[in-house]
Design goal:
about 80 residues, 3 helices
Length: about 80
């Protein structure tokens, strides 16, 4: 999900670009916000929290792989010495 504060900020800035009365500006801002939310919602994006969680999972998997590789190397060494 896209950060709502970012969408609100973008829609506010877009609405400020259009010179209009305050009530029209507010309506434009609301429409820009809805359009941005719809458009960005169609993109295949993840939140920072989701990204960080997956990064931790990946790091743990890499640690497990390194441990297993070390064990395999140790077993190979023992096997060759016997």
């Amino acid at each position: 999900m896209i950060d709502k504060s970012l969408l609100q900020s973008l829609s506010s800035k877009l609405a400020e670009l259009a010179p209009a009365a305050d009530n029209v500006r507010q309506e434009l801002e609301k429409q820009f916000y809805q359009q941005l939310q719809n458009s960005l919602g169609k993109l295949n994006l993840v939140t920072r929290e989701e990204f960080d969680a997956q990064l931790k999972v990946l790091q743990r998997a890499e640690e497990n792989i390194a441990e297993l590789e070390a064990k395999i190397a140790e077993l190979e060494t023992r096997s060759q010495q016997s």
